[in-house]
Amino acid sequence: MMSLLDVKGLNVDFSTKEGMHYVLKNVDFNIGKGEIVGLIGESGSGKSTLAMTVLDINSHNRHMSGNISFMGERIDSIKKEKMRQVRGKSIGFVPQSSMNALNPLVKIKSQFFETIKAHTNMSREDMLSLTEKSLEMVGINPSRMNSCPYEFSGGQRQRIMIALSMLLSPELIIADEPTTALDATVQLKIIELLKDVVKQKHTSMLVISHDLHTISRICDRIYIMYAGKIVETGTRDEILNNPVHPYTRKLLASRLPLMCEPVRVKGISGTPPSTLKKYEVCEFMERCDRVSEICRTVRPPECTGSVKVACHLESNSECHLE
Ligand SMILES: Nc1ncnc2c1ncn2[C@@H]1O[C@H](COP(=O)(O)OP(=O)(O)O)[C@@H](O)[C@H]1O
Ligand SMILES: [Mg+2]
User: Fold this and answer.
1) What is the largest CA-CA distance in the chain?
2) Structural domains present in the chain
3) What is the tens place of the pLDDT at every residue in 72-113?
4) Residue 225 in contact with residue 231, Cβ under 8 Å?
5) Which of 30, 66, 280, 283 fits a 20 to 30 Å CA distance from 159?
6) Within 6 Å (CB) of ligand 1, which residues are found?
7) Rounded CA gap, 289 and 284, in Å?
8) Quick check: 111 and 148 in contact, CB under 8 A?
9) Can you say how many angstroms the Cα of residue 1 is from the centroid of all Cα atoms in its chain?
10) How far apart are CA 34 and CA 1, in angstroms?
11) How far is CA 195 from each of CA 18, 34, 241, rounded to the nearest angstrom?
């Protein structure tokens, strides 16, 4: 399958007053045409950083190395102006907390027109009909395009953001935590909506979440991220039915029954490691319940090329699970 987005050996550090934060570590990552790919990990693991690095935003104190190719072309070193064209037109972005990203007091129609004008010279009628179609696609009555965002519910605003990100039929959508602030029933509807629009428009999607259980429903493939590293990757079925990395296994075990009331869930005990430190061994070791001798001395394999699990367990048959 041809790769639409291909990220290779991506390292991202941020310099701050406290020192250097090592956030992404040798990330290899790709999305094929028409694929829905999930990126899952705890808060702070570097998911949004990966998305924003691909889109070249939040770059003021960022240092990166590695390759990012989109549709066969390197985009990590192109001019800002050209990157602005890629963003919005070729890659649609639904940023984290995006239901609050719309200007609450500006009519939906004006915000849609602004995006269209930034990338095309469409006539007014064409802009109008495109806006109508896009709103219809996400189940918002087009007659409401003269309303302002504050007049909609959170779920409706999220639908509007999805419509906006798809407006110019991008090849790729990046949706960062698209369901996080919504309640469970609305979450499900938004997830199904994303899947429907992506399939309908023959787009690809990177969907980011800390919630493996909800997001995995619509993913073809999944990457699990821990402390800025891809720790496991596989098809949806491989990840859900045959997880290998102890972190993936813990994520699955702490799953919440989807439709139930919020209850106290047994999370994963311990805290993620500091981004200020460079690790010589496995970042997950302190929280891992399968630590063996080798973990204390040798860094696990990297999830690149044909390696699908960044853990000694995978390469050491003696300690195979169950
Ligand atoms: N511009 C920045 N400067 C310094 N640290 C940053 C910057 N952007 C993100 N980080 C740090 O990078 C880490 C990963 O953040 P983020 O990518 O937002 O994680 P996630 O989306 O998985 O919750 C966090 O520790 C965050 O504080
Ligand atoms: Mg994030």
Assistant:
1) 68
2) 3-97+172-189+203-319 (3.40.50.300)
3) 999 998 898 899 889 989 999 999 887 788 899 999 999 999
4) yes
5) 30
6) 14, 16, 21, 23, 41, 43-49, 58, 61, 275
7) 10
8) no
9) 21
10) 10
11) 41, 11, 22
